[in-house]
Specification:
Layout (H helix, E strand, L loop, with lengths): L11 H4 L5 H14 L5 E2 L11 H11 L14 H15 L8 E4 L2 H12 L5 E6 L4 H8 L3 E6 L10 H7 L4 E7 L11 H14 L2 E5 L15 H4 L7 E6 L12 E4 L2 H14 L5 H12 L3 H22 L14 E2 L19 H12 L1 E2 L1 E2 L9 E4 L4 H15 L1
Parallel strand pairs: 1-10, 3-4, 3-5, 5-6, 6-7
Antiparallel strand pairs: 2-8, 7-8, 9-12, 11-12
Helix pairs in contact: 3-11, 4-11, 5-6, 5-10, 12-14
Length: about 400
């Protein structure tokens, strides 16, 4: 008998995490579509636009340049690190040096690195809920303990300083801050961002601020970068960002983290033993993206705003469904609590998880259940897909729930 069976085959650490629900729903929808099923995917937040042509052309030229065929510095191409520092100053007003930027394999990898570098076993991380599905797993992989702070549509899905303070203990090491928010679409006003930043500064708590949706804000809401409002926070703050959402570059996998020198040095060491450099062709594409203008970004933002309006109106018109009007990112996060327990297409879903299964089976619509975001009763629908599919898909949900 194999001696391997005497111990657990998979480490306890990795056994304890779940598959990414957003990627799982997306993969299922894409597999069904490939098999000819008329599925509409509201799963992963992925712009339907192609990457702007000048970015693709820069990548094509880079692929023909033999220098891209070799290893490059683990922390990222020096020109890209400089361009990210310049773009950050241009877009959010946060000043940093190229040395404070680490280029990562997508925004997700930046978050993973930050958790690995900052957390020790038992460190508590305050996480406003509903939260993006991967944060708690990344906290756990870093040895940390998630302390979820629930918010509701009635609070605008925004955590307060009082809530943070009530959850603070002597093990609190860090907090996540995300505005515009995935999955809720909420955007914090500057005074609330400043108040949270002052609180974190006063208590020596690290802020991991995810700014990946910075350019996607609607109807007068604006994203502000916390350390620009609370400059003292600079030594205990990590900014997380990437090209995926702003430039329709989800598949290119280029993100970055910006932080104090010691954090960036530690994360670079980690990366030097794990991924080495991010693919050079993708980095050169990202260089073209961040050094270029924001014209294409503005056009995409306008389309998202229009689609968000459509989705919000259609969802709000369904009896039993309530929804916060999206302020940013590209998600609606409606509550379906009013329809749970009703008979729908021959079954009686009692949870949002079961309801989303019914949506897929009976309406061929893929939606991520709120359970994946620490918010049972809700579900997340991305409005980054095309207008016609959006109307057709939400229409199918409305018909099913009529
Ligand atoms: N951030 C996107 C989402 O939430 C991409 C998919 C993922 O990596 O989770 O859908």
């Amino acid at each position: 008998m194999s001696r391997i069976s005497e111990r657990s085959r998979i480490s306890l650490k990795v056994s304890a995490i779940q598959e990414s629900a957003t990627l799982a729903v997306d993969a299922k929808a894409k597999a069904l579509q490939a098999a000819g099923e008329p599925v509409i995917g509201f799963g992963a937040g992925e712009p339907d636009f192609p990457t702007p042509a000048h970015i693709v052309e820069a990548a094509a030229a880079a692929a023909h340049d033999p220098s891209t065929h070799k290893y490059s510095p683990a922390a990222g191409l020096p020109k890209l690190r400089e361009a990210i520092a310049a773009k950050t100053l241009r877009d959010s007003g946060f000043a940093c040096t190229a040395g404070q930027v680490l280029v990562t394999n997508g925004g997700k990898h930046a978050i993973y690195n930050a958790c690995q570098v900052l957390l020790d076993p038992g460190d508590e991380v305050l996480l406003p809920a509903p939260y993006w599905t991967s944060y708690p797993e990344m906290i756990a992989l870093g040895g940390g303990v998630t302390v979820a702070l629930p918010t509701t549509a009635a609070d605008g899905f925004r955590v307060t300083v009082d809530q943070l303070e009530a959850a603070r203990t002597d093990r609190t090491k860090a907090m996540f801050f995300v505005s515009p928010s995935n999955p809720t679409g909420a955007v914090y006003p500057p005074e609330e961002v400043a108040a949270i930043g002052e609180w974190a500064l006063g208590h020596g708590i690290w802020v991991l601020t995810d700014e990946i949706y910075e350019h996607l804000t609607f109807r007068g809401h604006d994203a502000v970068s916390m350390p620009t409002l609370v400059p003292g926070l600079v030594d205990q703050c990590v900014i997380l960002n990437g090209v995926a959402k702003t430039y329709a570059m989800t598949g290119w996998r280029v993100g970055w983290m910006i932080g104090p020198d010691d954090v960036i040095k530690a994360a670079t060491n980690l990366q030097s033993h794990s991924t080495s450099n991010v693919g050079n062709v993708a980095q050169r594409a990202a260089l073209a993206a961040v050094s270029g203008d924001l014209v294409a970004v503005g056009e995409m933002r306008d389309a998202f705003e229009r689609r968000g309006d459509t989705m919000y109106s259609m969802l709000s018109a369904i009896d039993g469904v309530t929804c916060l009007e999206p302020e940013g990112a590209f998600y609606c996060f409606p509550s379906f609590e009013g329809v749970l327990g009703r008979e729908i297409a021959g079954s009686t879903p009692r949870t949002s998880l079961e309801l989303c299964e019914v949506f897929l089976e009976a309406a061929k619509v893929a939606v991520v259940p709120g359970e994946a975001f620490g918010a049972p009763g809700y579900a997340r629908l991305s409005f980054a897909l095309g207008d016609d599919d959006l109307v057709e898909g939400v229409g199918r949900i409305a018909k099913l729930l009529a």
